[in-house]
Each structure stands twice: as C-alpha cells, then as structure tokens.
Design brief:
The longest helix has 27 residues. This protein is mainly alpha-helical. The relative contact order is 0.16. The strands form 3 sheets. It has a two-stranded antiparallel ribbon with strand order 1-2. The protein has a two-stranded antiparallel ribbon with strand order 3-4. Helix 3 packs antiparallel against helix 4 and helix 4 packs across helix 5. Helix content is about 75%, strand content about 5%. The chain contains 8 helices and 6 strands.
Length: about 260
C-alpha cells in the first residue's frame, strides 16, 4: 500500500483551495440571486454565469488541493482528456441544478432538486478527476466513505442555495459562500479518505501531464476568470438599483418636460 501525502506544501494548498471554492460559490450564488430578479435572456445569462462560476470554482478547488497530493514510491500524472471532462461535467451538472432553481415553480422542490444537482456535480467532478490520476499502482475506493462524500456535497449544496436565496444582504452571501466552500472542501477530503493505493513499482514512463504542466496553468486561468467576473458582478447594478435609476430618470424628464411649480415660502 502506497503512503499518500495530502499536504506536500503544508496548509497552503488546502487554504488556497478553500478560498477558490468560496470565490466560485459566492459568485455563482450571487448570479443565481440576480437571475431570479430578472426575466428572459438576462435570467438565462445570469444562470449560465452561475453555472460557469460554481463549476469552474469547484474544479479549481479540487486540483489546487491535488497540487499538494503525492504518493510515496510513484510519480503522478493526469490524463488530459479526462481532466478536461471533469471540468465540463462540473459545469453541466451543476448548471442543470442551477437552472432548476432559476426556472422552478415550487421553491422547496427547486431547492431540493437544485441542491441535488449541484451536489452530484461536485461529486462527479471529483471522481472523474480522480479517474484521470495516473501512477505506478492501482487505486481502490471504500464505497461507504464515497457515499458519505456524496451526501456531504448534496446536503451542503442545498443548504448553500437556501442561504443564498433566503438570507438577504452581504451577510447572507458570505454565509452561503462559506457553507458551499466548506462543502466542497469537506467532500474533497472525505473522498480522498476513501482512496486506497497499492503501488506496483515500475520503470515505465507514465502517460499524461504533470500537475505543473497542465493543471497549474489552467487553474491560474480559471482563477483569474473567477476574480474578474466577481468584480464585474460586484460593480454591476442589481435589478432594484436599475429600477430606482430608471424611476429617477423618468422623474427628471417629467420635470424638464412639464416644469415644476415651487411653492413660495
């Protein structure tokens, strides 16, 4: 049995991965809230942004954490197509859950279905990403712990969606993003606790890319996307702010058109 190391760089990778999960979750959940206040194409666009944010955020979290992963007695490589597939699955499955929330008619059913979709998306991303792992040995899983990791992802994703839609203001957004970030991180390390590796020493060159060759550059790109999009969402007016601005413009135009009689003192 190969000895696994999850903290090759100390607490740097767990903390950084948690931050990335929180950023992606905060952005995605805020976009979901914006979507519910919009209609037509704006709602669809906000939901698409939410799916991209949460999907890429949890993917980035997973592989930032995997930068600190090592196995004694073997090098580690990643299958590139499977790694990309894990990102696409995360966005698509999480997106299905988010769109259910965005267009659902029943609040409770939408939250439960959306939480299920988001949680399953997190789990699917994790285990497809693990399937991309290449090393000199065999990887096995404890199915009971795997099931627990999926339940953690679903329960916490549902709780995060509820907090985002029910608790208004900055406080609600912070709580929801922390819950979702903690969910993704907890799911990841619970899933990693289910892993068993049996090393078969060999001299053959492993196929695939190293983390620094492929995952690290893509993580930087996705991380930059999340932070830039977060700035855009933070600076863009909400539906309520746009409505107030339009009302103010209409009042100003009415004054300019019809004039206002100012009563004498």
């Amino acid at each position: 049995m190969g000895q696994m190391h999850h903290f090759t760089f100390g607490w740097l990778t767990p903390l950084l991965s948690f931050v990335m999960a929180c950023v992606g979750s905060a952005l995605g959940l805020r976009c979901t809230v914006r979507a519910l206040a919009a209609a037509g194409k704006p709602r669809r666009n906000w939901l698409l942004t939410a799916a991209l944010a949460i999907g890429s955020g949890i993917w980035t979290m997973h592989f930032v954490a995997m930068l600190g992963f090592g196995v004694s007695g073997s090098a580690i490589r990643y299958n590139v197509p499977l790694t990309v597939l894990s990102l696409l699955v995360a966005v698509l499955v999480v997106g299905a859950g988010i769109f259910t929330v965005g267009y659902g008619t029943s609040r409770v059913r939408s939250l439960l279905t959306g939480g299920l979709g988001a949680g399953v998306g997190v789990a699917a991303m994790h285990y497809i990403g693990m399937a991309a792992l290449r090393l000199h040995g065999d990887v096995s899983y404890d199915l009971l712990i795997v099931s627990l990791s999926v339940l953690i992802a679903v329960a916490a994703a549902t709780a995060a969606l509820w907090a985002a839609l029910s608790v208004h203001g900055a406080g609600g957004a912070i709580v929801a993003s922390l819950v979702m970030g903690l969910a993704v991180s907890s799911m990841h390390y619970t899933g990693m606790a289910a892993v068993g590796i049996h090393i078969n020493p060999g001299q053959a060159v492993l196929a695939g890319a190293t983390a620094t060759e492929f995952i690290f550059p893509l993580t930087v790109v996705l991380g930059s996307f999340l932070f830039l999009t977060s700035a855009f969402v933070a600076l863009s007016p909400t539906a309520q702010q746009r409505k107030e601005s339009e009302s103010a413009v209409e009042r100003l135009n009415d004054v300019e058109t019809h004039g206002v009689r100012i009563p004498a003192n």
